Amino acid sequence: MDSVGAHAYAKVLENGVQAIEEVNRLWDSGYRKEDLYVISHDRDREERIAEAADSNEVGLREEGLFGTLANMFRSRGDELRSKITSLGFSEAEADFFERELDLGKVLVVAKKTSA
Q1: Any residues with CB less than 8 A from the CB of 41 and at least 6 apart, and which?
Q2: Which ranges carry the General stress protein 17M-like domain (predicted)?
Q3: Which are the contacts of 72, defined by CB distance < 8 A and separation ≥ 6?
Q4: Helix/strand/coil (H, E, C) string of the chain?
Q5: Distance CA 7, CA 89 (A)
């Protein structure tokens, strides 16, 4: 599924290889590293894919201090939904994406930041 909102674009992909290809496609269409995020249910996998794709993981800049600290006490599912909503998606969209991540899929998000 692709989702294009006023603030961000997201695509659910089956695996890390497809996620890296999607990041490369987004780079070719004009997005910068600061605009691209990879999210996976498995933290280690997320880190590996983000590094291989030369993209970002959602962190302090996107969630703010409170959100980042709160994630330390949340379940992984709640943490993922929080990260997704911090990128501009609705609660319903975050629920959908988190269920897809539960199935082992990878979410690539492109969010234009100010230059």
Answers
A1: 76, 80, 101, 102, 104
A2: 11-104
A3: none
A4: CEEECCCCEEEEECCHHHHHHHHHHHHHCCCCHHHEEEEECCHHHHHHHHHHHCCECCCHHHHHHHHHHHHCCCCHHHHHHHHHHHCCCCHHHHHHHHHHHHCCCEEEEECCCCC
A5: 8
What pLDDT digit, counting tens, does each position of 18-54 carry? 999 999 999 999 998 888 989 999 989 988 998 888 8
19 touches 101 (CB < 8 A): no
Mode of pairing for the β-strands spanning 36-40 and 9-13? unpaired
Give per-residue pLDDT as tens, 59-113. 445 544 454 555 455 567 788 888 899 888 999 999 999 999 999 999 999 987 6
112 Cβ neighbours under 8 A, 6+ residues apart: 31, 35
* Residue whose token pair is 């600061």: 34
